[in-house]
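FORM 7B: Structural annotation worksheet

SECTION A. Query
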Amino acid sequence: MYKIKVNNKHDFEVDRKDETLTVNGNIVNADIARLNDMLYHVINDNGSYNAEVVSFDSEAKTAQIKVNNTIYSLTAKDQFDVLLDKMGLSNLMTAKVSDIKAPMPGLVLKVLVEEGAEVKKGDNLFVLEAMKMENIIKAPADVTVKTVKIKPGDKVEKGQILIVF
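SECTION B. Predicted structure
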């Protein structure tokens, strides 16, 4: 399942299981032919469309698609991005990062960094068990660890500072 926003205005929920494509819960019976890596031909509801991938960034989950000479900007979120939004973790990427706080109450299972370690954006910092699920907390930016305030077995509360950068 993906939530796709087109031109920062229109929202769609898209899912594909096997050969079945659904958009906003409705099955789409389109004939999609891949002409090459960046060009597709689509026939849907008696309409013919040429779709070209102008740009694609898999890390940022963004794309620009030209359909019949009109360019559309798309941003996508998968189920994990939606979960991070719900947990309030998605805004960590935009703010200046000076520490990591517990996103929820839980139990620290593993600490994967030491004081003085230089970590890159996306590196694993620690594992937090909450609601019987293991959550790997990752570095939101390239940072140097100043202080690690947790150890395996620690119980933490939501909002508690766990690592200082």
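SECTION C. Observations
The chain has a mean pLDDT of 89. The longest strand covers residues 47-57.

SECTION D. Sign-off
Analyst initials: ____
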